[in-house]
Write a structure and sequence with these properties.
The complex is a heterodimer. Chain A contains 14 helices and 14 strands. By secondary structure, chain A is an alpha/beta fold. Chain A is globular and about 60 Å long. The N terminus of chain A is likely disordered. Chain B is globular. The chains are: A alpha/beta, B alpha+beta.
């Protein structure tokens, strides 16, 4: 029995170390060679990454994976998805099981500095909020003293909530679940009074309740949650591809280039558009992809605004307003460095 | 074989030397293999800039845990989180082992009962719960039983003292007053007295053959003496009764539904297996033994207690040890329903907050190994004690 345990333990360690050594080379070259991007997404969060009725992955986070595939291969469909729980995500990326993580992940200093990972940008500015049953008659987070909270394990949410309740001298109980499904089910069944998570997720989870109208999102926001794609820190070229794929989508929106007009825009004499779409300059080559990389992204996925409205905005069941996620020219803080 | 011949044989043909060499080689190979793994993992993690040390254990955890047997809040360290998780695991495992043993014993004996209905009911219980995966049972007790209970404001109320709702089971909690120590002292004295009396009764029975109603007298002393002191001291015990305030019940003793459903599932699942082991143990005692005991005029209860069970135990204990180990390890399924056990809070939340996957998983595996080996050791020691001593 002892022997069996030792064997099991060693098998686990072998798994880790083999995974580590097998991908010691450059991620960029490895992705290029295998011909697809292995992208880590959530186990199902409507609007960000979920499987639709035809079995296809869709969502704002999924669009980042697809944009990278479009930049790399000229084909947005060359993505393989790995659904991950919040607990599994960083280990999966560290061990090389996935090439990039695009799973509503909050950019924090600890995660940037101590995990061997780097955040490649922000595709959604979020903040932590509260979803409560209307029947409780609660109007503000300040009235939640003594309440029970449902949380998803291993998220910044747990830490923010602890900070908030401590600094406001309120008592609470936190029930922590592994998946967002279990979390919302427990909230639905009345195990807890409040479900707390990033506000965007609350809108998504609310649509899954038995009776969405029985719950409401409180106006309070208690934290900063910049969500974005993550890569390993050991390959700056791959980091650049992911980062600039996201920037290309934002720049396209700023320049008014959409999936519908991108073919005509190729003839535009605006130098910014020419550089973005590869009709002038060698910008694609600089990061190791073809010069029409951004053209491929925009024609197949659309610009950032299109992706936002389609997945979480007014064209989706979530109906989230642009808010902070509008471009800086329209009162938001989404901004991308220029292609030049 | 003469001495002369042995001395003639060159050492590399000596069977003992060869055997020893082979074993050394295997050990060196295995040790080298593990050393390589550890080294390789370390180097690769360093190369990726993943910090890899135990220093995180002293950092502030920053999150809360719903059930803790020791003082804990969000400013406590990760080392404290580890301790909280470990105690929660041991807590549910220890209570589960006690309940599963009692229930298993009862069901196992019931299945052998000559009462047709009782035997069939026990059989149905065993076949049902032994053959449904444990995780499903945990989900069943959690989502279908505990969460189907009414909400806190409409909770089931038993005499205004006990409350049952989807937030947990609430019981009155005794609050000892200062004079309560006298009752505890009386209990210790009574226990000592009972042990002494038992020895005396044994000796008297050995010498004269006259039995002494040890069980009832012992029970009388252990319960009676503290009770007398309790009333003499003016009942120094208050009660904290649970009452609804704000969102939840306050006061009293609360068992969270995650704990209750995990305990129920672990107990019932393991009890079903233990019942079968008990049955096999009892059946292994030959019928002649029972008949001989009966012909001596022993009543049925004494036959079971003095003749059958002591012999059956020798068959029962080794497989029951495995069941205890299984129960302890199965308690890690807690993470599925959010009971804060070691896997859930340490190998789950703490791992994710710190990113120290390799270190934390290694520690967690080591802890389970240590718990299992300890249980194994205790049970082997007990098995050694009850083994057949030939006279």
């Amino acid at each position: 029995m002892k022997f069996a345990k030792i064997m099991a333990a060693s098998a686990a360690i072998v798994g880790l170390s083999v995974a580590a050594s097998a991908h010691a080379g450059k991620t960029f070259d490895a992705v290029k060679a295998k011909g697809y991007v292995q992208c880590g997404v959530s186990t199902g969060l409507p609007g960000f990454s979920s499987v639709d009725s035809s079995g296809k992955y869709t969502g704002l986070d999924v669009d980042v994976c697809r944009a990278v595939a479009a930049a790399m291969f000229g084909d947005a469909s060359k993505v393989h998805y790995t659904p991950l729980t919040a607990k599994e995500r960083f280990t999966a990326l560290q061990s090389g099981e996935i090439d990039m993580l695009s799973r509503n992940t909050t950019w924090t200093m600890t995660r940037d500095a101590s995990l061997g990972l780097t955040f490649a940008g922000v595709n959604y500015y979020d903040g932590q909020g509260f979803l409560v049953k209307k029947s409780l008659g609660v109007k503000s987070a300040k009235e939640l003293d003594g309440a029970t909270f449902c949380i998803q394990a291993g998220t910044t949410t747990e830490l923010n909530l602890a900070d908030y309740m401590r600094s406001h001298n309120m008592k609470y109980q936190a029930v922590t679940f592994d998946t967002s499904d279990a979390t919302s089910k427990a909230f639905d069944n009345g195990r807890c009074d409040v479900l707390t998570s990033d506000q965007s997720q609350l809108y998504a989870l609310r649509t899954q309740l038995k009776n969405p109208d029985s719950a409401m999102v409180l106006p309070d926001i208690i934290s900063k949650e910049p969500l974005g794609p993550v890569v390993r820190s050991d390959d700056i070229q791959w980091f650049n591809v992911v980062k600039w794929s996201l920037f290309a989508m934002k720049n396209a929106e700023w320049l008014g280039v959409t999936s519908k007009n991108v073919a005509e825009m190729k003839k535009s004499n605006n130098p910014n558009i020419q550089r973005l779409l590869g009709t002038s300059g060698e910008f694609g080559k600089m990061i190791g992809v073809s010069n029409d990389w951004a053209y491929n992204i925009i024609s197949q996925i659309g610009n950032y605004g299109e992706s936002f409205e389609r997945n979480v905005g007014m064209d989706s069941p979530l109906k989230i307003k642009r808010g902070l996620n509008a471009l800086w020219t329209q009162g938001g803080i989404q901004y991308a460095p220029p292609v030049r | 074989m003469s001495n002369h011949r042995v001395n003639d044989t060159p050492w590399w043909l000596n069977q003992r030397v060869r055997g020893l060499l082979a074993q050394l080689l295997v050990i060196a190979f295995v040790a080298g293999f593990f050393a390589y793994l550890a080294y390789n993992t370390h180097v690769n993690m360093q190369a990726r800039g993943i910090s890899n040390s135990l220093s995180f254990m002293g950092q502030e955890a920053g999150f809360d845990v719903i059930q803790s047997l020791i003082p804990y809040n969000s400013t406590s360290t990760y080392a404290r989180v580890f301790l909280v998780g470990l105690l929660n695991t041991l807590f549910v495992a220890a209570i589960g082992i006690v309940f599963a043993s009692i229930l298993g014993l009862i069901v196992g004996i019931a299945r052998l009962s000559s009462n047709w209905l009782l035997a069939r009911l026990a059989g149905a219980f065993i076949e049902t719960f032994r053959n449904i995966p444990l995780l499903l049972q945990i989900f069943f007790f959690y989502f279908a039983v505990m969460q189907a209970l009414p909400t806190a404001r409409q909770s089931l109320d038993i005499g205004g003292l006990f409350f049952l709702n989807n937030r947990g089971v609430y019981l009155p909690r005794p609050v000892p007053e200062p004079a309560f120590w006298a009752v505890l002292a009386a209990f210790v004295i009574a226990a000592g007295l009972t042990v002494w009396l038992r020895r005396w009764a044994h000796r008297r029975q050995d010498l004269t053959g006259r039995p002494f109603p040890m069980f009832w007298v012992g029970l009388g002393i252990v319960v009676g003496l503290p009770l007398i002191v309790f009333f003499a001291a003016g009942m120094p015990l208050g009660w904290s009764i649970p009452h609804l305030r704000g969102f939840n019940f306050q006061g009293g003793f609360a068992a969270i539904p995650e704990f209750t459903s995990l305990l129920l599932a672990l107990t019932i699942y393991t009890a079903a297996s233990i019942a079968e082991i008990v049955r096999s143990g009892i059946l292994s005692v030959s019928h002649g033994q029972t008949e001989a005991a009966r012909s001596l005029g022993l009543p049925n209860r004494r036959v079971l207690q003095l003749v059958v069970l002591p012999q059956a135990l020798r068959v029962i204990i080794p497989p029951v040890t495995s069941q205890y180990l299984n129960l302890t390890k199965n308690s890690s399924l807690a993470t599925a329903i959010g009971y804060p056990d070691l896997v859930s809070v340490f190998a789950g939340t703490a791992l994710n907050q710190t990113g120290q996957a390799v270190v934390i998983i290694a520690i967690t595996m080591g802890v389970y190994l240590a718990i299992s080996l300890t249980i194994s050791l205790l049970m082997n020691w007990y098995n050694h004690r009850v083994r057949l001593i030939e006279r």
